[in-house]
C-alpha cells in the first residue's frame, strides 16, 4: 500500500501551479532554448520544498544517490534518458567505470549503485564498479537488502587511464561527490570523467549554484508572469567563518537577520502567518551535515560547543569556512502526519522520476536530509511528464509536473554554474 | 485480461535472440554510431514477422497510425522521446499543425490522431489538427469510441504558410502518407514539414527501403556474427507492370520463381520443412491493398479479373505499376490460436512501445494488414528497453528487446533511404 499524500495548500501555490500548467508550451519552449545554450549535467537530483505558498529547490545534487528509490515502473524512462545522455557525452563509449562513494557499509547507498549500474547496462554499456577505498584490494561481492548484489573492484591506474582488472573503460562515471577533495588517482585522466571533477565539492559552491538559480528564476518568473520569490529562496554567504575559533559569527548573524527581515516582508505581503526561519549550511558539502535552522540572528551567536562542532565539519572531515544562509522553506506536504520532501531525479535534461523523503519524527521546518537519518522513500506514483489538463492544478500529475519544472530550473542553474568553474587543467595549473 | 502469448520457437531464432542479447553493448554502440551519421525520422512504425526461425521487418511506416494501441503505461516514454525529437527537428517550435489522413469515418484512426496530439501536447507543444478534406469547411468535433473527442479544422493557406483559423504554427507534422500525391496546399511551405514530403508514397518506394535495409542487415549481421538472412527477407522489383492490361507479368513470375528458389535453399540449409511463399505488393503504397501471397510463380500468370483489379490500385486509387516481390516470412506468434504480428513504434530513434495485431480468422502466412481488416491490438506488456539478462533468451522482455533491435535496423534503413530521394525543391524543379 502506498500512503495517501496530503498537502495543506493555500492560495498562492495553487495559483503558481495553475500558472505553470497554463504556460506549459511556453515553459517547454523556453527550456528547449536553455538546453540549446547550456549542456545539462549527466544526471542530478533536486531537493524541493513545497510550502503551500512557495515551491523551491533547496539543494541540487550532481551525484544523485537514490536511483533505487524511484518507481520501478519508470525504469524504461531512465534507460531512454541514459541513452540520450550517453549519445551526447560519450557516444563512442562501450564500457564505463562507475566510481561510487566510499560508504560500503551503507547498503541503501549500494542499492543506488546497483540501480544505476542496471540503468547503464540496459542503455547498452558494459559497466564495472571501481572502489576508491584502499582496503578494496580484490574484487568483492556485497549482498544487498533487496536480494541483488554488487561487485566492487579495486581501481587501477595505468598511465593516464583508470581501469579495473581486465577492463579498460572508455569513460569514468562519478557517483562520488568528492567531498574529501579529488583523489590523486582521478586526476589528469585521459578518459572523459562524467560529471567533470569540477562538479565535486572541492570546487563547487552552493552559493554559486543559487546565484545562477537567481538569474534562472528571474527569467522564468518573467516568462510566466509570477513573483520570482515564489520559486526562489533568499540567500547570502559568509566566506570567513571559523566555528571552532568563533570567528565570523557576526557576518553570519547579520545575514540571518537580513534574510529573516526580507522573508518577514514577503510573508506579510502574502498574508502568511508562519514565523520565518533561515537555514545555515556549509557552502561546499552535502549529506545534511553542517546544517542548522535558526529563527533569530541571536541563535548563531549563542551556539554551544556541540553545535559549533557539528557545524565545523561536513562529510569526510572537510572543514567548513564558507557558509550559505538560505531562507527556510516550510514543508507542507505530509504522509500520515509525517513530513514529506520531494526529490526529483533527472538524467541529462529529462525528468525520470522522483520520490518523497518521508520522516515521521521531524517538524515541517527541519532538514530531512540529516546525518544518520533514515527516511522512508515514497516513490512518485505517476511520472512527472504527464500533467492532466482536465484535472485540478493540484492533482498529483499536475503537482509532479510543477515539480519537474522547478527541478529543471535548478538543473539549468547547475548547467550555468558548471560553466563558471575553472576546468580541471586550469585547476591543476593554479595548484601547481 | 491480456491473453497469453505463445510462440512456437525452433532453434535458429532462440540462437538469434541469444546472439542479440549477448551482443547488446556492441549493438547499442553500433546504433549510436548510425544515429551520428543518419538523422532518424521523426517517428515510424515497423511491422515485424517472427517465424520462429527468422525475425524480420516486412514494412516500415513513416506515418504511423496506431499510437492509440500502445500500452498507456508507456505514455511518459512517448512524451520523453517526443521532447527529444522536437529538440532535434524543430527546437524553436511552440505550435504544431498536425495533418492527418482523410479517413474521418475511421474512428480507430482518429483515436491515433488524438493519442498523437496528446503526446505532442505533453511534450509542450500547442497542437491543432488541420484536415485536408475539402468538405471540412468549419471546425468540427468528432466523438471517439474511447470517450475522447477530436477537433478537425479546415486548413488555410496564407502565402507560403499553412494555418488554421487563429493559429499560425511553427511546423507542420504529417500523419498522412500522401498516397494520393502531394496536395497543392502542402507544396512549397516555408514552415518545416515533418516528416518531409518526400517521405510520402508519391516519392517513396519500398524497394528503396529494402535496398537500404539490405546494407544495414549485412553490416549488423557481420557485427554480431549471424547469417543476415535471419533478419532479412529476399526481395526483387518489377518496374513495368500493368495488371489491367496484363503486361509485365513474366517479369513478376521470373522474380517470384527466383525468390522461392533462394528461400527453398535457405530452408534446406536450416532444416525448415515449411513451404516457402512470396508476397507481391505495390512498391509504393500502404494499408495492405495491392498485396498477394503466392507459393508458385505460375500463380501470378493465372490471376483472374478480380485478383488483377485488386492488385491494380492501392489506397486513394493510386495505380500500381511498380511491384515488390518479397520473401514471405511466416508468423509463428499466436494468441489463443490467433495469428499475432508485432508492430514496433518509434519516436526519433527511441523505441517507445509496440503492439500485436491479432487476427483470429487468418493463417500464419497471410497479410494481417489487409483492407477492412479489423485486427485486435494487443499492447506489449513490458517495454522494449528492459531486457532481462537473467531470463531465457525468449522471455517477453528479451523477445521485445530483440524486436526493438530489428525495428531500429529498419529505422536506420529508412533514414538512409530518405537521404537518397530528391528534396522537395529538387522534386519541384523536376516536375516543372
Automatic annotation (TrEMBL), chains A, B:
Enzyme Commission code: 6.3.2.2
Membrane-spanning segments: none
Record keyword Electron transport present: no
Molecular function per GO: glutamate-cysteine ligase activity
InterPro entries recorded: GshA, GshA_N
NCBIfam families for this protein: gshA_ferroox
Protein name (record): Glutamate--cysteine ligase
Organism whose genome encodes this protein: Pelomicrobium methylotrophicum
Amino acid at each position: 500500500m502506498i500512503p495517501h499524500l496530503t498537502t495543506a495548500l493555500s492560495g498562492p501555490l495553487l495559483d503558481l501551479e495553475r500558472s505553470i500548467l497554463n504556460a506549459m508550451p511556453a515553459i517547454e519552449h523556453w527550456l528547449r532554448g536553455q538546453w540549446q545554450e547550456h549542456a545539462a549535467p549527466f544526471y542530478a537530483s533536486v531537493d524541493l520544498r513545497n510550502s503551500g505558498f512557495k515551491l523551491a529547490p533547496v539543494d541540487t545534487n550532481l551525484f544523485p544517490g537514490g536511483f533505487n528509490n524511484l518507481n520501478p515502473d519508470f525504469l524504461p524512462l531512465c534507460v531512454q534518458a541514459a541513452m540520450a545522455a550517453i549519445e551526447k557525452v560519450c557516444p563512442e563509449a562501450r564500457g564505463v567505470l562507475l566510481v561510487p562513494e566510499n560508504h560500503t557499509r551503507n547498503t541503501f547507498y549500494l542499492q543506488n549503485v546497483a540501480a544505476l549500474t542496471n540503468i547503464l547496462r540496459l542503455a547498452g554499456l558494459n559497466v564495472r564498479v571501481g572502489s576508491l577505498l584502499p582496503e578494496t584490494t580484490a574484487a568483492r561481492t556485497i549482498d544487498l537488502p533487496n536480494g541483488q548484489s554488487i561487485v566492487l573492484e579495486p581501481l587501477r591506474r595505468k598511465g593516464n587511464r583508470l581501469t579495473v582488472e581486465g577492463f579498460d573503460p572508455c569513460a569514468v562515471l562519478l557517483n562520488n561527490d568528492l567531498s574529501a577533495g579529488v583523489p590523486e588517482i582521478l586526476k589528469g585522466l585521459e578518459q572523459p570523467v562524467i560529471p567533470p571533477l569540477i562538479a565535486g565539492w572541492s570546487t563547487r559552491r552552493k552559493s554559486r549554484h543559487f546565484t545562477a538559480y537567481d538569474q534562472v528564476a528571474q527569467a522564468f518568473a518573467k516568462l510566466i508572469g509570477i513573483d520570482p520569490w515564489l520559486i526562489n529562496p533568499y540567500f547570502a554567504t559568509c566566506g570567513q567563518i571559523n566555528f571552532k575559533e568563533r570567528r565570523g559569527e557576526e557576518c553570519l548573524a547579520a545575514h540571518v537577520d537580513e534574510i529573516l527581515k526580507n522573508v518577514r516582508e514577503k510573508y506579510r505581503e502574502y498574508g502568511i502567518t508562519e514565523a520565518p526561519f533561515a537555514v545555515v549550511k556549509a557552502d561546499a558539502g552535502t549529506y545534511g551535515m553542517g546544517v542548522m535552522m535558526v529563527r533569530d540572528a541571536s541563535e548563531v551567536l549563542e551556539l554551544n560547543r556541540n553545535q559549533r562542532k557539528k557545524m565545523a565539519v561536513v562529510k569526510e572531515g572537510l572543514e567548513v569556512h564558507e557558509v550559505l544562509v538560505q531562507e527556510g522553506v516550510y514543508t507542507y506536504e505530509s504522509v500520515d502526519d509525517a513530513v514529506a520532501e520531494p526529490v526529483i531525479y533527472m538524467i541529462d535534461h529529462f525528468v525520470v522520476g522522483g520520490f518523497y523523503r518521508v520522516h515521521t519524527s521531524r517538524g515541517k521546518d527541519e532538514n530531512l536530509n540529516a546525518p544518520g537519518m533514515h527516511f522512508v522513500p515514497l516513490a512518485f506514483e505517476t511520472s512527472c511528464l504527464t500533467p492532466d489538463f482536465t484535472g485540478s492544478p493540484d492533482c498529483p500529475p499536475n503537482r509532479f509536473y510543477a515539480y519537474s519544472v522547478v527541478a529543471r530550473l535548478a538543473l539549468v542553474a547547475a548547467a550555468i554554474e558548471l560553466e563558471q568553474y575553472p576546468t580541471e587543467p586550469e585547476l591543476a595549473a593554479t595548484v601547481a
